[in-house]
Specification:
The protein contains 7 helices and 6 strands; from the N terminus they run βαβαααβαβαββα. By secondary structure, the chain is an alpha/beta fold. The structure holds flavin mononucleotide. Belongs to the NAD(P)H dehydrogenase (quinone) family.
Length: 258
């Protein structure tokens, strides 16, 4: 089995950097092969723009999807993007390792999606979701947050973690990955501290033990359900007969908030 870890953290000695190394070690001890894209260390530029493309289709006005498709058709996808797609193609499991920053992934990871999930290469209208390029592979978010699991509960002050992660998971599902439940490391306090050093140290030890435990059997886990391509009507809405899996895509009778 092959795992690929995408690390989005500026500091290799951070807890995020540590969890990426821990995943690598754990999988290698299990006989898997592992690749890591440390986006900051690679100097990955996340700001998609015309300058990345030689042989532009339209040099007067940059249209991102048109130029991505043009590059895919002409073999001019930027080398660093092609290399990332190659690593995803090789992997059975992809882990995105990042800290929660302003309720979202760091910009470098958002830009990785913008650049690497190339229109015309990674997705097309009929190559998405259950028919996506990466079907048969699994992906998982592994993230750290500063506050407790309670604050990320359905009624917590940091916001419901399942809802907050839905757009990122949906993006992975869009390109065909089976998406595993995220591994969320709660209470990873750094500069802004609510707990004593002893409490934090004990918590971090527990998180590492839980992570290693989970990685031992991760290939057996079930994926989060998302709708399939044929569950959409011609109007782009979910068919009445199709199951709804989240508040992001629901049936009319589920519109009320309790
Ligand atoms: C720019 C920035 C924004 C942050 N936003 C959040 C946030 O929205 N929610 C949260 O729980 N923690 C937030 N934090 C705290 C980080 O999530 C926390 O420091 C990190 O997960 C610790 O992991 P590390 O030691 O590997 O950096 C933020 C930190 C930074 C630097």
């Amino acid at each position: 089995m092959k795992a690929h870890v995408v690390l989005a953290h500026p500091e290799p000695l951070s807890f995020n950097g540590h969890l990426a190394s821990l995943a690598r070690r754990t999988f290698e001890e299990r006989g898997w092969s592992v690749t890591v894209s440390d986006l900051y260390a690679m100097g990955f530029d996340p700001s998609e723009r015309a300058a990345f493309y030689r042989n532009l289709q339209n040099s007067e006005r940059f249209d991102t999807q048109s130029e991505q498709r043009h590059a895919a058709m002409n073999g001019t996808i930027p080398a660093e993007v092609q290399a990332e797609i190659g690593r995803l193609d090789q992997a059975d499991l992809v882990i995105l390792q990042y800290p929660m920053w302003w309720h979202m992934p760091p910009a470098i990871l958002k830009g990785w999606f913008d650049r690497v999930f190339v229109y015309g290469e990674v997705y097309k209208s009929d190559v998405r979701f259950d028919k996506g390029r990466f079907q048969g592979k699994k992906a998982m978010l592994s993230l750290t947050v500063a506050t407790s699991a309670e604050t990320y509960a359905f009624n917590g002050r940091s916001g419901d973690i399942d809802l907050m992660l839905w757009p990122v998971n949906f993006t992975l599902a869009y390109v065909g990955f089976g998406v595993l439940q995220p591994f969320v490391a709660y209470g990873v306090e750094s500069g802004l501290r609510y707990s004593s050093s002893g409490e934090i140290e004990e918590r971090l030890q527990q998180i590492q033990a839980n992570y290693v435990d989970r990685l031992q059997t991760i290939e057996e886990e079930a994926t989060i359900p998302f709708n399939c391509l044929d569950e959409w009507g011609a109007d782009g809405r979910i068919k009445a007969s199709a199951p709804a899996h989240s508040p992001f895509i629901r049936h009319r009778e589920h519109l009320e908030i309790d």
